[in-house]
Write a structure and sequence with these properties.
Largest sheet: 7 strands, mixed
Strand content: 15-25%
Oligomer: single chain
Distance between the termini: 25 Å
Number of domains: 6
Amino acid sequence: MLNYNLKEEQAVIDFWTKENLRQKYLTKNKLSKKRFYFMDGPPYATGSIHLGTALNKILKDVAIRYKVMRGYDIFAKAGYDTHGVPIESKVQKALDLKTKDDIERFGVSNFIKKCIEFATEHIDDMNKEFLNLGSWMDYENAYITLNPTYIEALWQAFKKAHEKDLLFKGVYPVHFCPQCETALSFNEIEHANLEDTSIYLKYKTRDNRYLLIWTTTPWTLPSNVGVMAHPNEEYVDVQVGNEIWILAKPLLENVMTKLEAGYRILKEYRGKDLLGLKYENPLVPLLNIPKLSNAFRVVLSDRYVTMDTGTGLVHCGSAHGKEDFEVAKQTGLPIYTCLNEKGVFGKEAGKYNGMSARDSNKIIIDDLKNLGFLLFEEKVLHEYPVCWRCDFPLLQVAMPQWFLRITAIRDQLLKNNESVNWPQQFAASRFKDWLSNLSDWPVSRQRYWGTPLPIWVCDKCGVYDVLGTFDELESKTGKKIERTVLGVHKPEIDKYTYACKCRGTKRRVPDVLDVWFDSGASSWGALNYPHEKDLFEKFWPPDLNIEGPDQFRGWWNSQMILSTICFGEAPFKAVLVHGMVLDINKREMHKSQGNALSPNEIIEKYSRDNLRYYMIKNGTGDDFAFGLDLLKDSTKFFNILTNVGAYMETYLNVNLDTLSKELSPNLKSEDLWLISRYNSLKKEVLNYYDNYLFYKLAPMLEQFLVEDFSRKYMKLVKSREDKTNLSLIFGYVFGGTLKLMAPALPHLTEYIYKNFNFKSIHLTSITDCDKDLINLELEKEMDLVSDILQLGLGLREQQKLRLRWTLPKLFVLFKKSDVKVNKLEPTLKSLLNVENIEFVDKAKADKAKKLPFAENDFIKIFVDTKFTSQTKDRWFVSELRRYIQDERKKLKFTPQDKKNLSISADKPAMKILKDCQKEFENETNTKLALYELKDNTNSIEILEHKVKFNFS
């Protein structure tokens, strides 16, 4: 008897392990000419997986399993990200190292060793967790971004960018994380609603007027170099007390209401009339800044000055914003900041020396107040950029960085993206929009644990080399490179220097690469290219990526950039996006909030395939709420599946590898319908698999197995005496459907399949559908039968007529003349349990209008509820038969066990049973002894008859 549970699921896993099945499966199609390369996006190996990781790995596994069962030679190597701030932060926390200075004191070499240790210690544990989900990838040979061969692939890509004149060093505002002490790229920036202090202040002009300024970043005011005005907007001079203030007329009322200031307009003019107006920064006496040429004057910008908020005059901190920087460059304002490379004010900041930028806000505001230049302050909640890893508020600071000139290849990126299949339309639009707005990419990071930037710069003349291989470095230095993980990272790699032509020394730039650069080369790094070219030529580019929505700006972005630079084409053929897994209240899951669930918790309570099935059904691309109660629906479906398997095991001699050509020609209409329906389903299912729309598979397969196969077909054929065709049909249809479900439910399908065939289902094949066996006309007729069935079941319930009670007649009216039931009339009678169905016209239906009825837009059915005594006698027999069958199950009799049955009944019931005794014995597999009931004690009442029975 089939009974799927955790114990049986573990037995399946033990069978796989014993038979080394994963390795057989991964190499099953090595001689095939059809190839499939799945590119695994590398997660960080930082500990136990969460439900989002489980969703990701499950969807990937479905794709891979399907391709294996379709005969593809696959490349599906797992991968792990190991560099970057996420690892450094964990190590720093473990070692209580709060700053870069702490790291330097601890020793960079010691720190790197700890990073290597932390980045790799959880890989084996995570491999086991992925395997526990049923995810079959090549974990033994996973690509890991810290390996020397992988780093060399990155160096080669970097050199390729240099050779295409896409690499440059420049001073440009970049987002800087004071906590991580490094620059970030556009794809590493999150946004959060933060509370800050916004202030209105005034700058005194040379002609004794005052420019009114509004800002939410007071920390940038020591680095002020100019004020921007809109050339074409109206501005005014207004008298406020003894002072003349300058601001934009469209914002005048708002500002004066906020400041509660009375005023009188003295003069109106265009913003362009303010061009070149000189002013004084009131903070300068508190600073030690050098003399700045062409600073502290009004410049014009019709692009970055708006009339939405503020005063219409914008403070320009040329080093603290892309807009400010561009305007400064265009208008000749100096590029200047008082902040150092750690986001801290330096000596030139005078009073503020040593303060962090955001910590200085309050002191700067107090100083402006004491100096008499602060007009108003208030708390505001606004969207502000934060670090994607530590959530710390970012600074925009112009500092020297190495950039890739992405703006030069943006059109090519968009063109390459046109070749990518995005099954979800929203995803295609979103990635196109992202690529359309790319700016140049700052790829250097001022950190320790990462791929070393392969740039060697002369300390005398400044000429630099970009190296693409360790062989090049050995050739330049004349020294052998230690090609170990430790040997190719800081600080070991920094020991290699060589002479420049000018007799200076070329040393490596101390920066490391942006960690997104690492994963950007994964599609060929995983193939060990450029060291080995065979796999690259055989499989590249990957056929599929599956990740969450954060990878639009992350992994997919960096892959597209590097692939375009290195090979001129897209790095993937198709991309599937899944959503985020939220808690039942649609909040993000976090351990700290107590709402996080681990995959292992769910597996231990339900099963691996329960979790898989739930995730697949929700892999639409949208975020979804995860609740344990919602898993119960899957359990019900699994029970139906195992019940079908149990029925086949008990009643039929089934071979699940049976082919349709072995079927007997003497098939009934319902047989032909099921076979047609199965092949139509298979056609749709294969299409969804091929287009990676896995979430659409579950409801289709469930509907077919529950409604079509179990509730319709099995009910129709249960009483069929000749089981020969049934065995063949069940084997063909149910076996084939199991294979269609195998990529999604590998444990459950293996469990059922092994009961009939000792070969693993995962080493079998999913074949094409047999189009010759599809009969759409018959399927359409069954749809009509289903509509009538639903109305009939509803009418029975309404009239309290149980389905096992055979009805003499049902009347059916088709409201449209072009529909009718032909071949499937016997099927309809059986499903509705009626002896006769009369299809009537409208005239006859009108005569029956007083009868109970049910209807929809196309069909109306009637039933006559005036039943004869003979009909009610048959109902009594039917009810008694159900009682006896239930008792057989309780006593654990098998269907083949023939038992003696004694029945005591009242006289009318005795007569009924004697009239159908032989038929009753056959249906209940009993030898019947009938007695007249003498004592009603412990008797049961069935349709007004008193009955007792017992087995002997």
